Amino acid sequence: MKGTMKFLVVSLLLHAGAASAQSIEQIEAYEKRINEQQQQLDAMREELEALKRMAGVPEASVEQHSSPHDADQVIDTDTDHEPFVVRRSDNGVLTLGGRLHRVIMQVDDGASTNGFFMDSDQGPTMLRADISSRVNSGWVLSGALEVGIQSNRPYQVSQDNPNPGTDITVREADIELKSDEYGTLSFGRGFSAAWTVPEFDLSGTVPSALLATGNLAPGMRFVDRATNELSDIRVSTHFADTERLLLVDRLRYDSPSFGGGFQLSGTLAADARWDAALRFYPTNDNWTIRAAATYQHKPFQDVDDRYEIGFSARHNETGLNLTTGLVSGEARDGRDLSAYIIKAGWLTNLNSLGYTAFSADYSFGSDARLTGDEAESIGIFVQQKWDALGLDLYGGLRRYDVDRPDIALKPMNVFAMGAMYTF
To answer: Which residues have CB under 8 Å from 11's CB, separation 6+?
Structure first.
């Protein structure tokens, strides 16, 4: 751009000398106008980068693509549609976006088989507004408002309550001040620092097979083997990840990236609750690697301390991936609850629509509610992305099995088919 500007200025000078019709003042005016246009282009470029950050589009860097050949081998999973731009100003952008996520389930609880229609709790239906304003060259102020709108929310749907109605929840109401040099400070309702579960899962089946395996059908009730009747024990009792800080009113800080991909984060919430997280997302041409370690203080009811370690790696050329997670905690009654999950997957391009992801997982937990209880789950899922429409289609099977010292429960099998439309 600078070379083009110099060429134009020289051309103007030559034309002025040959025709003797242009004055020095006119030439300087032309040059000033070109400079102003350059500044406008720079401002538009900064505005575009701010919009990409709000949409979750990664910024391009030299490290991300070493060569055209390498770039062709990497499967891109960040292809969601950018949100609709409502208003632009000299230093700000307002966008609207949302998501529709519907799922059909067939649940076999050992006594009966029933079908259910609901919104998902693995990325629920929502509407979202984001605004971003550049304070100066080093700071960006942004705000987000997200409202979840779920018809038949899975946490409320059960065999004896198939149509609980509509649930409307303010999921996020957050103000954020960000600096590339000093980090990001968030104030308001939003995710805690330790909510890393959907971040480090590189399988490509996050909306269909979340690492918090109970979020698929959390409200479903297990059947008592002795009576063949529904018990009061739900899937969420042993499988849904409710024993954590999640969406809370908080003050959160995220440091800039340092040391080749490290980041520190922390959250302060009401009732002396807090958490901390260390992320490690290094850059590598052959592998995508994500790791996280978190600590939570008083995350839920009778749990005082909770620790979590997660790791995920995906080979970029083949799309093969492996994710593991380990959770432990200390309850006030002396229980040492623990759980782990292993998830293997394959992310590939089988058609021109978008990537296809396959995953299989196994999870096991103990002492979640009582000393001596055990819970395990197995899931197999496939998900197809349709880039041009912003659509994800998926289907899969999940089995839940709980062993408790106080009651014998029948295992539960869930078949799910879902569609998630992002706009």
So the answer is: none
- Taking the C-alpha atoms of residue 165 and residue 198, their distance in angstroms, rounded to an integer, is 27
- Three-class SS of the chain: CHHHHHHHHHHHHHHHHHHCCCCHHHHHHHHHHHHHHHHHHHHHHHHHHHHHHHHCCCCCCCCCCCCHHHHHHCCCCCCCCCCEEEEECCCEEEEEEEEEEEEEEEEECCCCEEEEEEECCCCCCEEEEEEEEECCCCCEEEEEEEEEEEECCCCCCECCECCCCEEEEEEEEEEEEEECCCEEEEEEEEECCCCCCCCCCCCCCCCCCCCCHHHHCCCCEEEECCCCCEEEEEHHHHCCCCCCCCEEEEEEEECCCECCCEEEEEEEECCCEEEEEEEECCCCCCEEEEEEEEEEEEEECCEEEEEEEEEEEEECCCCEEEEEEEEEEEECCCCCCEEEEEEEEEEECCCCCCCEEEEEEEEEEECCCCCCCEEEEEEEEEEEEEHHHCEEEEEEEEEEEEECCCCEECCEEEEEEEEEEEC
Please say whether the beta carbons of 78 and 65 come within 8 A.
no
Q: Is the pTM of this model over 0.85?
A: no
Please write the tens of the pLDDT for every residue from 217-237.
Answer: 999 999 999 999 999 999 999
The CATH superfamily assigned to 84-422 is Porin (2.40.160.10)
β-pairing, 262-269 vs 287-300, is: unpaired
> Phi then psi for 222, rounded to 5 degrees?
-75, 155
The per-residue pLDDT for range 343-377, each reduced to its tens digit, is: 999 999 999 999 999 999 999 999 988 999 999 99
